[in-house]
Amino acid sequence: MDKGAVLLGGDSVMPPNRKRKRLRTFSMLAVFLCMLPGILHYTSFRLVPSITTAVLSFTNISGLPGSAWEFIGWANYREFFILQNVRDLRAVLGRTAIFASVVTIAQNVFALFFAVILNQKFLKGRSFYRAVIFLPSMLGVTVVSSVWKLMFSAPAGPIFLYMQKVLGMSNPPAILGSFQHAFTAVISIQVWMHVGYTMLIYLAGLQGIPNEVYESASIDGANEWQAFSRITVPMLWPTVIVNTLICLIGALQTFELIMTLTSGQFNTSTLSMQVFATAFGGRGATASGGTVAGLRQGYAASQSMVLFIVVFITTIISQKLMSLRERDI
Predict the structure, then answer these.
(1) What class is the 75-328 domain?
(2) Which of 35, 187, 232 is nearest to 96 (CA)?
(3) CA-to-CA distance for 162 and 210, rounded, in angstroms?
(4) Residue segments in the chain with a per-residue pLDDT below the cut of 50
(5) Among 132, 164, 197, 253, which one is least packed by beta carbons within 10 Å?
(6) pLDDT at 65
(7) Are 154 and 174 in contact (CB under 8 A)?
(8) Which of 101, 92, 98 is closest to 247 using CA atoms?
């Protein structure tokens, strides 16, 4: 007789401990099989390309079919930090910092403003207004850039006509072709495109705050600003942290919008745009007025690794500072 079974009426009945063990094994196998597609996708399209990029950053690969390449050690990093024009390096890093910080702050401020307004139950047509604000987030970068190029175009663009007819400017500037206005326009379009997504996250956070808290504060004599500053903001702070990190990482990695709007010209090129221009033959401009030489994918890989380090350090510092702020609140 098998020690692991008990004979009841001639049938073998599995002991409870062994049954639970098999069920646990089956559950773990089922969980692993459900996770397997995600693991394979992450490994194939995230992990392997990232490791490959790190390796290629130590080579002089050009991306041209059949061209020879070899490992050159730290030469690409030495060129980026030492050999290239210091003014170009300082300009692109400073422009990247300005772009990321302004986009992050503006996008969060506008998104929170819209979320608070559209969370009011007395407002009619809330769903329609939410859809209108969120719509740009659903559009592709090419569509967004095409729309705004038409808006700014001369002589029939709505913004050009507004500056000419309403503001009385006889010769309005070409916004996207101006060294003075192009960078501001790109930042504004970036915020306009993504503010709806950030707003939805804030709406989810606002709807998770119990109404009883506001009712108690109202009974205690708190006005709307006091309720917002002492109830809404503290209880919404984890959502603020999430949105800030999402906006910051997204802004640091943005290059598609810049590429389709200005091709990195007119002092609009950021570090991520420089990576694309270097790797695929774009026309990202340098501070000295030249253009970035393309099809240097080894050098572009080293630039992308620098960008990764910048994003990583910035994210860690921002998360730490906002976590300390959360404790104070």
Answers:
(1) mainly alpha
(2) 187
(3) 45
(4) 1-11, 285, 287-291
(5) 132
(6) 79
(7) yes
(8) 101
